[in-house]
């Protein structure tokens, strides 16, 4: 049984030397392992002539960002359409985005909930490495913005080129983070299967030999055909066969599981950790020189973590205002306006009814109104005939008679009220409403 001794994790700097396999050699060996005998013979000659050993000392910088070698130079010279780079580094190749572009939703046609989600990748709704539905990327997030207004049972999609697929996210918990309500998501366990258990994932399996065990993601199609496979760190949640040839693995969900903490209304990522281990899933390469010990082996190289610990303080305060404080304030103001509007409506109805009641009470004619009407009517019939000969004495006697015959339809208060009566004949007099006598004050006859 071959084994790879795991070195205790420690802090290293880019100039430190670390032992590593010659990844490019194992990769080329895996690619040509199914080729003709002549092709394998040619590769064996090159390996022996260049004295390429399986293990090598290199700096941490070379390990991650690439190093030069004779075999890589030959590959770049004679197979430039395939190996168009002269260095092979893990991080260097993982973040090679030359020629990549995405079309994303702006919210104008497909709703605000889809803002920032992927519509097409390099002009297509799917990546070319897989058939549908395994290659579909429409509606997935690249991690910067997730769907908004999500419900508790919604399944989300997360796509990165380094994963060579879009993986499903399922909600596992709710929490409060940065003062905001949030949902906690994990990768759907079904998405780690390559068709062994779930029939829908059969499209991730390209032939019996290349159908990887559960827990490994085949990404060779996105990395020049090299036998690269992803897993969770220390093969967490992977098939037990993955650790059979590897010593020192210690999977711990608290340290090695990926998670996403998202604000459900806005789709804002509040906290996240995407943790993946990069492996070489080598096939039957025992016929290639100096590669026998790596035959049919999953060789772990390193694991990475993409981490968002928390939002910047100014951004967290802004979103707390937008998503927590303002919605509550909006509801409070709405209810206050409803209550205030109802109160004003009731007050207006009360004032309206009160005014109508007052008008009805004062519409009954008072004694002085009826008196003026009768006096005016009688004078109108008398004065036109005698306006040339009537004297003050006759007018006084006439008005006195009218007053004595005036009907009293209202109670007369003891308080003496004076009313100035102006007739059409321009005669004005003051009446004593208590005694009923009218005292002429002026008389003008025309």
TrEMBL record:
- Extract the InterPro entries matched here: CD36_fam
Segments crossing the lipid bilayer: 332-353
Tagged with keyword Transmembrane helix = yes
Gene Ontology cellular-component terms listed: cytoplasm; plasma membrane
Q: Does the keyword Nucleotide-binding apply?
A: no
The cross-references to Pfam families, in alphabetical order and at most eight, read: CD36
Picking any one GO molecular function of the record gives:
scavenger receptor activity
Q: Which keywords appear in this protein's UniProt record, sorted alphabetically?
A: Cell membrane, Glycoprotein, Membrane, Transmembrane, Transmembrane helix
The protein's location, in the record's own words, is: Cell membrane
Main location (coarse class): membrane
Q: Which family does it belong to?
A: Belongs to the CD36 family.
Can you name this protein?
Answer: Scavenger receptor class B member 1
The uppermost taxa in this organism's lineage are: Eukaryota, Metazoa, Ecdysozoa, Arthropoda, Hexapoda
